[in-house]
């Protein structure tokens, strides 16, 4: 019964590890999206700057765009930093969950080996008993036959 309980616990830990790995994958995808956003902002800034240099109407709004661009870059940088912290924490959680899972799996393997060894010991003892019983019966039969032959 205890072995079964440990197997259930192992399944739960595997599920939790899978969930943490999925979360890490989401965090890594979000990081990539933020990096893509920074690249897009840089490209758009160059486009806006070129438009401002070639068009006097666009030049009037370029100052406001620069302010927005700076704030947006700061916002993306903050989001990237927060996301990277979450990635580090999630990686630590994954390492810990993996170690716990491996400990449980090794413990279960050891239990299984002990149970198998005990089963083999009992089977061998039973086979030895059967062998001894058969041997005694043969000896008794041989004595009886020997006694009949002598008589």
Quick one: CATH class?
A: Mainly Alpha
The largest sheet, given as strand count, sense and whether it forms a barrel, is: none
SSE-based structural type: mainly alpha
What's the alpha carbon Rg, rounded to whole Å? 38 Å
Q: How would you describe the shape?
A: rod-shaped
What is the typical, i.e. mean, pLDDT? 92
Query: How many angstroms separate the termini?
Result: 60 Å
The tally of structural domains comes to 1
CATH architectural category: Orthogonal Bundle
Note the total helix count. Answer: 2
Strand content: under 5%
Series of H and E elements:
HH
Polypeptide structure, described:
The protein is mostly helical. It has a single domain, classed as Helix Hairpins, CATH 1.10.287. Helices cover 98% and strands 0% of the residues. It is built from two helices and no strands. It has helices at residues 2-54, 56-150. α1 runs antiparallel to α2. The longest helix is centred in the C-terminal third of the chain and has 95 residues, at 56-150. The chain is rod-shaped. The mean pLDDT is 92.
């Amino acid at each position: 019964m205890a072995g079964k309980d440990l197997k259930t616990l192992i399944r739960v830990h595997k599920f939790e590890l899978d969930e943490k790995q999925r979360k890490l994958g989401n965090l890594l995808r979000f990081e990539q999206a933020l990096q893509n956003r920074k690249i897009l902002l840089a490209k758009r800034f160059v486009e806006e700057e070129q438009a401002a240099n070639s068009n006097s109407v666009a030049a009037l709004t370029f100052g406001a765009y620069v302010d927005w661009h700076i704030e947006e870059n700061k916002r993306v940088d903050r989001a990237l930093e927060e996301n990277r912290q979450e990635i580090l924490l999630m990686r630590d959680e994954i390492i810990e969950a993996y170690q716990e899972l491996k400990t449980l799996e090794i413990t279960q393997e050891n239990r299984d080996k002990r149970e198998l060894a005990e089963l083999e010991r009992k089977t061998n003892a039973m086979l030895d008993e059967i062998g001894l019983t058969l041997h005694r019966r043969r000896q008794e039969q041989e004595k009886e036959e020997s006694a009949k032959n002598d008589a």
